[in-house]
Here is the input.
Amino acid sequence: MSDVFVIEKKKEILAALASFKSAIRKSCIKLGKRQMMFPGGGVADSVEAFGCTTKHGQLVVGFPDEDWGTRVPIFLNLNPPEKKYAPNVEINIPLEDNRSVSGCFVIDRARHTIVVASRGILTSNKSRISKDLVYAYFKDWLFESTDSDVDSQLISVGVVNSSRLTEDLAEYVAAVNRLKEKIKAGDTKSITTSPKPSGGKTNAWHDGKEFEGKIKAKKKASSSIYDYSHGPIKNSCAEYLKAKFGNELDVKSNVHVDVALVDRKSKKARAIFEIKTTAQLDGQIYQAIGQLLIYSKLYGTENCQKVLVLPERLEAEDRDILLSLGLEICTFEDGKLILQSDKESEFFFKGALSASN
Here is the structure.
């Protein structure tokens, strides 16, 4: 039996929903009742709303009081008006096995984790967005799971028992909003076009949203090892770097590099960021050491900064080992990249921004 699977029994779905609501209540403040409007003209008159501050502003999570029959919606908004508005994202959780409904809860037994996930069903201007387009856009958020005895790929929205839950929910809403803006502007080519290999290496920089070929062939979900927060952390890191350094440097990715600060003249990376989601000195971090050393030679300037981004702080002894290898260690805290050293500070770029190495 798979270790990663969609919860299908009504009793277990309701238990997962109760855990999700409990996590929201602990992380947010109660805002009272709100009224939700929908593009088709429907109205939800009594929605219990909870709010908290995230790096994207105020996240509001809403649960309707009334019975919605065979599904329970979760309404998500960023920076909405006070009382009456349409949800930015509506995640519908079916109370029975139904793969045609957008949302689901997934249990990862090996990690003792419950994940709020999306099946990639999104609409824009009352029309369904192509699932291939949605999956291309959220390629860094995909994980494999058994869904009604079928091996499927799902989009990780947030981990219920994670301290990052509200930040990940906000990141997902912000990403959905950006996708809808691209579609409205007719800008879907940047999502679906793969950069072409150059000189035998696929090293073309892009904005991190392109889809590299077709979705990978599905593997057995039981063998899947996925970092549910990798996509949200990568997006958060890229948005932070754009805000801080975007006037001088491009924030890019390629098929190897998670995020890079790229010199506009030389097209070489002046800082490369590798994102891992463990703070244990084990296989993931050992892999990251090699990735940063090799990628900095392949794609970087001579003095390219090599930055490892982790979800939490390393033990001092482990941190010092990595620092001795010429790496910089950062954690993403309160919307900022924080350098881990004896004297902690916000990440800073070494050298003159206006010069090319």
The two ends are 53 Å apart (CA to CA).
